[in-house]
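ARCHIVE CARD
Drawer: 12
Card no.: 0347
Subject: one protein chain, sequence and derived structure
Cross-reference: see card 0346
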Amino acid sequence: MKGIIKVISILGFVAIIIWYLFIFLSPRDYKKPSKEFYVNDYAGFFSSASKDYLINDASYWFNYTEENSDLGGFQAVVLTYLIENDEDMALYDKTEIYRDWGIGENDMGLLILCFFKENDDLSLSLAGFEMEIGYRAEMYLTPITQRTIYDNVMDSHYNMEVVLVNLYYDYTGEILDKAYNISSSPFDQDEYEDMLINYDGKAYGESVPIDNLTYLFTKNSTFFDKFKPVIIVLVFFFTGGIITIFAGKGGRSGGIGLKRRH
């Protein structure tokens, strides 16, 4: 009997190691965040200047609101994808991504999702713009306000990079104003464009999703996801192979958010 238990234990241990190796070696999942988290530019659209601005701005306001408000820390995340046709947008569910990433403390979060297509000259054109808003943040950024800001900003400048950062600025500013009573001055497009031209700060490389094994041990994955192979082996051992396991994730947003196609 002891010999059988030893064999089962060894096989179970080997199975666990193989499982985690499989996860580590599997292709990166572009529905997972990059290590920068606040900017996940998988389309390769934004310059280092914009990445630096967005990362620093979003992380600053998260830390500030987390420390100074009972509402919880507000997080704004920007995500871009390069697509070949409009149907590809359906592959990326903004609500699912928002929930999987756990954006915002106490549901105070905003996800800005941009889709791009490549032109003949290899430049990128905006093909779609979507937003997902946390349950608690919804009352501070209503659908009417979302549309109004979008319509006012979208055709306000020839440089799409400036326009998209302007949208980020106005959407986050609206939530910071209404929820946290933090006012801000209007976005200066000319000043921002000058910053893009004269930027000499940190150079950011290509956005890459964190590897699957690293993501597995972040707080965004469930306990079951982290220790699935261990649990399966233990349940198999103690039930004689009869296994029925269900894993559920709590939702933190309700699918309310602007969607525009170009």
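Annotation on reverse: Residues 2-25 form the longest helix (24 residues). Residues 39-203+252-261 form a domain with the Diaminopimelate Epimerase; Chain A, domain 1 fold (CATH 3.10.310.50).
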